Amino acid sequence: MFVFSALSNPNSVFVRYSTAVVAACLALLLRFLLTPLIGSATPYFTLWLGVVFCAWFCGVGPSVVGTAVMALGVWYWFLPPFGTFALESTQQAFGLVAFLLFAGIIISVGHRARRTQERLNASHAEMEDAVKERTADLRERTAELAQANEKLRQLTTSMLHLQDAERRRFARDLHDSVGQLLAVIAMNLAGFEKRETLTMDGVRLLTDSRQLIEQLSAEVRTISHLLHPPMLDEAGLGAALRIYVEGFSKRSGIAADVLVPRDLPRLVQELEISVFRIVQESLTNVHKHAAAKNVKVSIDHSSAGLTVIVADDGKGLLNGHPIGVGLAGMQERVRQLQGTFQVSSDTTGTSIIAIFPTPKLARSASVSN
């Protein structure tokens, strides 16, 4: 193929003619070398190789020149009387004409094959150029898509961090402001109890008001705890999960069990918040969609990593539960920490599994949960 490509170059006219002449000479030399073996009975024996080579690689003009050189060489050296251009019989003339005729046919067929090969090479080159162009375009689009995905991940990460910070701030403000105001109102109402001028209706209204204040205070504490449990910052992940799962079981009526190692150390804040939010979102989905009676939260901590599993005995995701932003948010939190996220679901229940690489301990000393 390399030889064909080189000889197909329109700027290699001299090379093609030279190659054809050299091929003709080599064919004649080979005939000389084989004379002791095959004698002079088949003078055109090796010349066909030269004709085919010239027809395939050199083109019409060089093939005609090469064939002429071979015909003259055979006529002069291999047809008696040797060393002259005379012919002894019409049979020799017929053989020489037949050689030229068949050589012309071979040259014509070779020329067509050569043109076909050139068109094939041109089409192949066009296809390669098109493939390269499309590949470059695809790589460019893939790079743009990867860049857009990376920006989206960064934006999602920032949004999650802002969401956690806003939850923490709002929980603190709710506890400090609304909780304090409710406490003041409760103290003011307690002052009315000391007055003897209240009627029976006044006493009843005062009692109802105090009960409402107590319920409202409890609701504020619950909302504040759900937004950001203070135990998560004070005592760590284990204590926060135990309190949260216990409260979830009371509020939802779903039997919930939590298995957290007692010696679970304090982890970096981002990991503790992510694990807590994954458990929180998972239990919220169980309460809203699973119709489960039991749910189990388990945390396993070892040198291999941290594994979080939330499993329920509900109807599963395949029975109408929409896969929405909740699962996407959990998956993104796990991805941020280079972990793996898996959802296993069938008609017997759903398991949310998050596996984090070897967790980093908090900079401060480890605190037993």
Could you list some keywords that capture this structure?
369 residues, disordered C terminus, alpha+beta, 67% helix, rod-shaped
Structure description:
The chain is of the alpha+beta class. 67% of the residues lie in helices and 10% in strands. It is built from ten helices and five strands; from the N terminus they run H-H-H-H-H-H-H-H-E-H-E-E-H-E-E. It has a five-stranded mixed sheet, covered by helices on one side. A hairpin with a 2-residue loop joins strand 2 and strand 3. Helix 2 packs antiparallel against helix 3 and helix 5 packs across helix 10. The C terminus is likely disordered.
Offer a quick outline of the entry.
The protein has helices spanning 2-7, 13-38, 47-57, 60-77, 90-192, 200-227, 230-234, 237-252, 269-290, 325-336, and strands at 255-259, 294-302, 305-312, 340-346, 349-356.
Topology:
Blueprint: H1 2-7, H2 13-38, H3 47-57, H4 60-77, H5 90-192, H6 200-227, H7 230-234, H8 237-252, E1 255-259, H9 269-290, E2 294-302, E3 305-312, H10 325-336, E4 340-346, E5 349-356
Helix pairs in contact: 2-3, 2-4, 3-4, 3-5, 4-5, 5-6, 5-10, 8-9, 9-10
